[in-house]
Each structure stands twice: as C-alpha cells, then as structure tokens.
C-alpha cells in the first residue's frame, strides 16, 4: 500500500480530530465516483452510534443547500480527474459554508485538490484489487473517524485485511472468468441488461448499470435494488430479459437470494455472481460485509471487459463525454 | 380535507412532541410508497437545522439495523394495503427498538396500522390532487414537526395551500391532456422509456419508471437523475431514445434544464413536462418548491393513462404481483 496515500488519510483524520463539533458527514460526487460513496454510507449506517452520513450527486447537493452544512459538518468529495465541474463547485460550496472538506482525486494539482482542506491522491485502476482504491480509502476514513469519535474497533481489522486485496481479487477474477466469457457471448446482442443487488454492493452495480452498460456500451439498463424488485420492476421479468445479479455476503444475502430465486423462475437469463463462491479468506471475517464491494467492483469489470470485446465496442469509446461542451 | 386525517396527523405530532429526544427521522416503505418519501426527505434536507432524515426501502432498512434506531428516532411507514410484509416487519422492528412509529395506510385495521404507535388513514386516489394524499400528509408531518422543534414557519402556508390542490390539479391535467395523448401515441411501441428529473420531483418519476412503466406497462425504464445524466446515462441518448423529462420549479430547474437541453440535441423524442407552464397560483409562492411533486404525481398519471389506453394494456394488469407467493 502506498505511503503517500496513508499519510494523506492520516492528515484527514487529524483534521477531523481537530473538529470535535463535526456530527454530519456528506459524501458527494458524480457517476462512478458517486457510486463508491455507498460503501462509506453503508459503514456509517451499520456502525455509527451518533455520526450521521448522507450521500448526494454533486449538483443535487449544492441545490439542496442544507442548513446543516456548516461547522458541524465534514464532506468527502471524489473526482478521478479532479476536474468534474459539479464536484469542484460542491467542494467550494461546502468549504465556504464552514464544513471540513476532503477530496479524493488522481490529480494532486487539480481544481478539486485545491478546493478542499485535505486532498488524498489515488491511482485509478478499476480492474485491480487495492487497499488504496477509492472505496478502500473511504473505509479507512470512516472507520478511523468512528474509532476516534465513538471507540469503534473495526479500523485495525480493516487495515489488517486491505493488503490481501490485490492477490485475492486476481484469484476471484480467475474464478469468474469462464462464466464472464460465456455471459458476454450470451448477452452481446442484448438491448437491455438489468442489474440486481442490495446493501453494500448496490453502489457497485449502480456503476455497472450507469457507467459500464449505459456509458461505455450504450446498452439500456437500470440498477434494480433487490428489495424494490418486488414492488414494481419484477413485472418486466420475462424469459428473455437478462439480469446480472449479485448474491452478497452478510445481512443483504437474504434479500438478494429472494429476488434471484424469483427472477430465475421466469427469466432464462439470470446470471448470478455469488460472493460466497469466492475465496475471501484473507479478509478478517468481521470485515467481509463491509469489504465485499472492494472485491465485487474489479470482479464485475471482468464481465464488462468480455462484453466489450465480444461487441467490438471498447470500454473507452464515447460519443458525447469529453467530446463537446455540455 | 378529511377531518379524520387531520385528527390523526395532530395525534402523530402530539406523539412527537412527547418525545423531545427524537433527532432522527426514518422514512421507510416499498415501491410507490417509498417513492413518496422523497418529498419528506427533501423538505427536511432543505429546512431542518438539526433534525436529520433518511429514507430506505423497507427490507434494506431492517437489514442495515442502524445503531441510531432507538429512543432518539421516529419512523414513518407507508403501505396502501397496510399489508406489505417488508413494511410491516420494518415497523415492528423500529418500534421494538424504541423508535416512535407512524404508519400511513388506507386500511385502518391492517397489520401496519396495528404495528405502529400512531396510524394515519388515507384514501388512495393517485389521479386526483388532494391535501390528504400521502405526500401531502408527509409534508404536514414534517413541517409540523419542524415548527414544534425548530420554530420553522412553513406549516401555516402549507395548510393554506393544500385545499387548492383538487381544482389546481384538474386544471393542470386539462392543460397537459393534448400533449399526453400525442405522447402516448408516439410512444406506444417504445420498448424503453427513460424518465429524467431531479430534486423534489425525483420520487415522482422514480414511481413513474418503476410502477407505471415497468410494473403496469412492462416497458423497460430507469429513473435517470438529471444531475447524474452527464456522468454515464447520457451516452445512451440517440435520435430514437424516448425521455419523459420534468422541468421543475425552484433550485432544481437549472439542473433539469441543462439535462433537457442536451437530451433534445441528440434525441427527437424528449417530452418535457414544464411545471412553470402550469397555473400553481393557489399555492403560496414559498411552498411551490416543496409542493410541486403533489401536482406532478397526478399530472404524470394522465400520461400513463393515455399510454395504457393506446397500448390496450390497462394499468391494473399484472402477471406476478398479488398472483403468487414471492
């Protein structure tokens, strides 16, 4: 793991310690970066006795103009380029309102890095497991903050578990590779592909639907929440409607399993990524629920890479993004 | 407006006044009822100085098992039948954890009504404007609570504005009727229809995508957030991809307008419901931002009713819901 990242994370935690009045945490970004915030929101929800967290896409965050955004708040922003206009504006907005601001970006000289109190650099390698990936940094911040505020004990097992990620993810990708190849061939002409997930994994499949399928493959999609599936979306289930479903670990598994069981009854095209079928033994058991999205994100990338190859439509192709003003 | 509803709302507000320790509000339901909670979450975000609100689909709420769920919490649930198993379970769960629980249902003898501290009955008339509709009751609870806690002054203008809704909505539906008829004909063979919205209106279009298009019409959809559109979904925009977009009032309008302007450049099938084109003069100006979803919900119903008629697929048809165990 990268010592520069660790130094920045510690600086951010020190900055938070210097602000004992902070009781609200805002998690703000756009698209793929926004989807990563679910991991941090989930950890706060499951663990915090008094800290509250909320997550918004950047423009909505500024638009809501929450009266709670002030000295009692901290806000974490993320933009790979550090240049996403809505996210830079949101960071400036939060800082001007007195919140303590932290920014994750791959570009240490970027506008986002300059807009925040504390910038944390990371390398963007979405196909690799890493204790320095965005979601891993977010967990380090959240569990460090909860340790300092509330005596939460998960920071140490988190730090013990993170170094195993590169090898663990490589093994997991090898396990799913045959299924990913078959799935890509079966779905290369699909006009619509739904994802199905819940709990800590929902953010990963949100990014799979919006960034990998819609943005990078021009395939229609919706990230269906397994708990919402039975209250509307399940009526579009039919023999030929494809679902890429996640069967997660921990408390969300029951919800996932119920939705998958139903979908499989009426669709012949339900592909399941079962996290119990992967070897997560390097992760301390108590941390698997929180860390499963860190494994899932690079694992679903394998599915996207095979799909892109079979469709002759590289993941780098865009028609609008970065090509014009919008 | 119905005096029984008013009596129940006042009982709920009295129950909340008896619990000054409450600082967290949880808004919990499934599907169409869940979508209504956005109105309440938006009002708390925009107005509260210290109260925090969060919204979950029922199964996810129980699964998260938040340590903050206790005597310092209140929770509002909604289920039209009062029989939604996940919502009844969530209400029982919250009450057992010491939270003050309020339940909205059309069935005063239902399991949900029996599971909560305070039940509020309502009539489900999704095509009509009403100060006793779910979202209206939620605003009465939120602004009543904020008045009692924080001296917020919007309860009185809210109550002054609500009685105009039946007539105001009827007029608005007449205004959009020709566009809704044309839109239905143009889109009756569309395999996918996206919605595009933000801010207080997002919940309405979430229900349009999940409940009206997917559930009741078996049409593929995703409720795209106008702020997220440029960070993934906009790449699926093409000349023949249909969007039903909302151009809202107040601070969300800028975000909506930006997305609509882009979508119209590359799709010939962007239908815009412009809330500025409707006569909302019965609503006190300061309340229009909060109350616009109460107008939008029955207005988009007009679009759904024409679509159902043109497709020969009534809104009441289901293949799975209520027909089997799941």
Shape of chain A: globular
Helix content of chain A: 40-55%
CATH superfamily (homologous) name of the largest domain in chain A: Glucose-6-phosphate isomerase like protein, domain 1
Give the largest interface.
A-B, 68 and 68 residues
Lateral arrangement of strands in the main beta sheet of chain A? 2-1-3-4-5
Between the first and last Cα atoms of chain A, what is the distance in angstroms?
37 Å
Q: Count the domains of chain A.
A: 2
**C-alpha Rg of chain A, in Å?**
19 Å
Topology of helices and strands:
The structure is a homodimer of 326-residue chains.
Chain A: H1 3-17, E1 24-29, H2 31-47, E2 52-57, H3 58-64, E3 73-78, H4 85-96, E4 100-105, H5 111-115, E5 118-121, H6 134-150, H7 155-161, H8 165-187, E6 194-197, H9 202-217, E7 223-225, E8 243-247, H10 253-266, E9 270-274, H11 288-311
Parallel strand pairs in A: 1-2, 1-3, 3-4, 4-5, 6-7, 6-8, 8-9
């Amino acid at each position: 793991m990268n010592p520069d990242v660790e130094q920045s994370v510690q600086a951010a935690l020190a900055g938070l310690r210097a602000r004992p009045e902070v009781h609200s945490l805002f998690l703000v970004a756009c698209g793929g970066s926004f989807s990563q915030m679910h991991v941090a929101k989930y950890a706060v929800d499951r663990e915090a006795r008094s800290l509250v967290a909320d997550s918004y896409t950047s423009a909505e965050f500024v638009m809501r103009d929450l009266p709670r955004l002030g000295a009692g708040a901290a806000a974490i922003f993320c933009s790979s380029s550090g240049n996403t206009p809505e996210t830079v504006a949101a960071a400036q907005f939060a800082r001007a309102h007195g919140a303590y601001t932290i920014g994750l970006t791959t570009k240490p000289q970027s506008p986002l890095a300059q807009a925040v109190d504390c910038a944390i650099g990371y390398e963007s390698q979405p196909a690799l497991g890493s204790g320095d990936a965005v979601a891993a940094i977010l967990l380090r911040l959240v569990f460090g903050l909860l340790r300092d505020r509330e005596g939460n004990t998960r920071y140490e097992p988190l730090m013990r578990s993170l170094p195993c990620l590169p090898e663990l993810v490589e093994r997991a990708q090898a396990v799913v590779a045959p299924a990913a190849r078959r799935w890509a061939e079966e779905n290369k002409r699909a006009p619509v592909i739904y994802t199905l997930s819940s709990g800590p994994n929902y953010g990963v499949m949100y990014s799979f639907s919006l960034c990998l399928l819609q943005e990078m493959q021009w395939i229609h999609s919706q990230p269906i929440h397994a708990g919402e599936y039975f209250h509307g979306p399940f009526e579009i289930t039919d023999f030929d409607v494809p679902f890429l479903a996640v069967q997660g670990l921990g408390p969300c598994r029951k919800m996932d399993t119920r939705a998958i069981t139903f979908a499989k009854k009426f669709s012949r095209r339900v592909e399941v990524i079962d996290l119990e079928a992967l070897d997560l033994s390097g992760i301390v058991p108590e941390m698997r629920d929180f860390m499963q999205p860190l494994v899932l994100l690079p694992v679903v990338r394998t599915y996207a890479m095979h799909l892109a190859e079979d469709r002759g439509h590289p993941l780098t192709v865009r028609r609008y993004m970065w090509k014009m003003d919008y």
